[in-house]
Amino acid sequence: MAKDFRFGMSMRFFKSRARFEEKVKRAEDVGFDLLCVPDHLGAVAPIPALTAVAMVTTKIRVSMYVLNAAFYKPALLSRDLEALDKLSDGRLEIGLGTGYVREEFEAAELPYPSAGARVDYLEHMTTYLKEHHPTTPILIAGNGDRVLTIAAQRADIIGLTGSKVRPVEDPLAERIEFVRNAAGDRFDSLELNLAITAVPAGGESMPDLSMTRRYASDLSEEELLSLPSVLSGTPREMADKLSAFREKYGVTSFTVQDNHIESFAKVIAELR
Q1: What is the DSSP letter of 136?
Q2: What average pLDDT does range 208-227 have in this prediction?
Q3: pTM of this structure
Q4: Domain 6-271: which CATH class?
């Protein structure tokens, strides 16, 4: 039996408390299941923002997409997550990643570890949080072999990007097959999530590709439009693409940016 869809909205900035509350409540009303924030200097602070979300909503779950594990000590982060879980009445999900922006480490006056050391620390953080928050779902997002191995063996939700790691025709299928092999018997219980980077504005069929281009600057516009993380067409056509992802890949969870709230709400309506 196919798993139900889940939809997340990622919020990076807000201009005022009133606008923040309005958008959060709107996300809950139009059917988003999860509201998450990223973890970048210069953007909203995750724990305070998610605490505020918890206090003005009743159903939508709260998470991070994703915390930079290397910014935190496990026990201190665990303390904050425990408080957030209680204040949200158990609606917390924990999103983790290795962190990758050297300039943010420098701005935070933290050493910038090697890629291998950051993955080692992600594994350490995951182990600690699984022990101290055993019933709280954990998402690990990434694309490399080691990160996806940790995710497959320790996490509950796998955050995929669809980016190419090896020269294959279908990078998303290759990464999912890698997760399947690493997870073994756990695979069927995992939720597969895909981050969507481009969605057409209301009334349009072509998306703004500026965010997607930041991560794939060498691709043509046609190649960008063909990426799994890019949606185009009518709400029905976008819904059909997500249904095809569920059928072909088993991907049932999708996260979009908050500037797509209204246009993606129409996609959600088509799927429910």
Answers
A1: S
A2: 92
A3: 0.96
A4: alpha beta
